[in-house]
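Internal tracking record. Fields below are filled automatically when a chain is submitted to the structure queue. Please do not edit lines marked as system-generated. If the sequence contains nonstandard residues, flag them in the REMARKS field before resubmitting.
Queue: standard
Priority: normal
Entity type: single polypeptide chain
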Amino acid sequence: MEIIISNNRSELGQKAARKGADLIRKAILESGKADIIVATGSSQFEMLAALVKEDMEWPKVTAFHLDEYIGLPATHPASFRKDLKERFADEVPLRSFIYVNGDGDPVIECKRIGKIISEHQIDVAFIGIGENGHIAFNDPPADFETDDPYIIVNLDDACRHQQLGEGWFPTLNDVPRKAISMSVKQIMKSKAIICTVPDLRKAEAVKKTVEELVTPAVPATVLRVHEAAWLYLDNDSASLLS
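SYSTEM-GENERATED OUTPUT FOLLOWS
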């Protein structure tokens, strides 16, 4: 895992987007198409804003949704479908965007979207790290063993408090307790991973990710065993590194 430290969020987002765009262009050049994973949350704002400005053959790109709350309609301000549609899918002429539907039966939805992604080799995964060290909604202790591409997960208190703290919900009781998440193994199948993690509140999680043993107790540590992963930090999120 290569670590790149920037001075601020804006610079971090631009560097992460530039690297990711280069990898997408490489995939298109080699196979005529590219398949990517896109994440949501405030940590991705600057990266997505820069990515949609990249000169790209977007009609050759298929994008997959990383995770979604169960029982939250797509019209809700905290809906990840809503966020990705507005910040990414509506901004570039993609071949297709495969959303996770959190409204229906989650078991059926996991099977539906899992079947689709199983037919694709992901070229680039754009992800973040949570304050509790999660990747996607794989809260600790994460399941490193399941082969299912998408799984139903329980959100721990730290994760739910993060969503509240970021302003997505008015009270903690409004934060859903369950979500559909791409599994750790499915994320790790990606040829390349661009992990974007700004802000001081992520510093402890970043330190554990980089310096502790690979463990389900800190799910993001698994990124260290990936052959092509880049961790983009700003000075704040990198401030506790040895």
